[in-house]
Amino acid sequence: MRTLFALSIAAALAASTTACKKDEKKEAPAGEAKATEKKEAGGPLVIEALGLAIDAPAGSEVSEMLGDQMIQGPGLVVTVGPAKETTPKTLEAAISEADMYSPTVTTKETTADGYHLEFKNTGSMGANYFVQVLRTVGDKQYLCSTTAPDEKMAAAATAACKSLRAK
After folding, report:
1. In Å, what is the CA distance from 53 to each residue of 43, 78, 113, 164, 165?
2. Are the C-beta atoms of residues 49 and 40 closer than 8 Å to each other?
């Protein structure tokens, strides 16, 4: 439950600050990876910290956020990280955890390597569109998720999350 709340807050903050963020290029000390990688053309974006790749729009960036990796780009904000002990491992468990939001489930799919869940809720701030995709890459599970302000961003998140793969 706390994971979804933290992701909701992080996604909302990221969406509200993306337009204000300057294009910063920081040089990493020798032997260290850059904190932020930027994708100049649409397509595969490497998430070095996880050894994964994800399809993202041109201009997308990867940055560390609370131990996970955040991918931000035009019309896209998702968080990717290793599944934690508290991450629901089945579609049924994910739906049960989402119940606290009084959701309208719009997509529920068990996949060969995890699940894909989308739901909507409407609160005092309007509609929220949740996307959760659990993928198994190699022998590890990863959760790719977002809370989007509209259906278009939720669809972009779904496409990106479903493209998650080994780099």
Report:
1. 10, 13, 16, 6, 5
2. no
Whether 70 shows a pLDDT value over 50: the answer reads yes
- Phi/psi of residue 118, nearest 5 degrees: -130, 140
H-helix or E-strand spanning residue 71: strand 68-73
User: Under DSSP, is residue 16 helix (H, G, I), strand (E, B) or coil?
Assistant: helix
Please report, for the domain that includes residue 78, its CATH number. Answer: 3.40.1000.10
Closest CA to 136 of 82, 79, 66, 67: 82
Mean pLDDT of 153-167: 97
CA distances from residue 12 to 91, 103, 130, 160 in whole angstroms, order as listed = 24, 18, 12, 18
Domain assignment of residue 53, yes or no: yes
Q: Supply the pTM of this predicted model.
A: 0.77
